[in-house]
Amino acid sequence: MDSSLILSNVLNSPVLFFVIGLTAVFLKSDLEIPQSISTLFFVYLLFAISFNGGDGFYESGLSSEVAIALRSTVVVVAVVSVYSFFILRLKLDLYNASAIAAIDSFLCAVTFVTASSFLSPVNVDVGNYLVATLALMSSPAMIMGLLSVRVFVNRLKDKSLQDTLDWGECFRSLARMVWPFCWWVVC
Predict the structure, then answer these.
(1) Owning domain of residue 110
(2) Which Pfam families match (predicted)?
(3) Has this prediction a pTM greater than 0.70?
């Protein structure tokens, strides 16, 4: 294996930012990204992934291969979120178990970008529609995380906690899931 390929993947931006964040935590630094910049990054990533996903989906068309990939993405992410929740629930409280189970899909974006950049130099062609599956990944996990809290919060004795769910995040997640397909229809 070519050492320059390994070096280019280690020096990839997501990996470097992860190392910087990990170092800041270990050094107990007060490094913090301001909320407004954090929101800007979120919106930028939302549009970038959605536009690339919609464009890739448009180029590929709706074939049986694309439909199977999209359906499989939703099913796998939902199943992983559910079983992660129950495993995490053995050691964590309801809210943390739901949040960690839901956040697994966001880690997939970094993995997807790293895997794509790794496969590109070795001439392995991945379908353009796979970016649409990336845009689709976070929505089922977010919805499953919110639903797991909603279902199990009724079992809590403190009824004041039952009204703390933010369904706005659920609707943003649904919009993130629908946006690439709207882009495909418009083009």
Answers:
(1) 35-186
(2) Sbt_1
(3) no
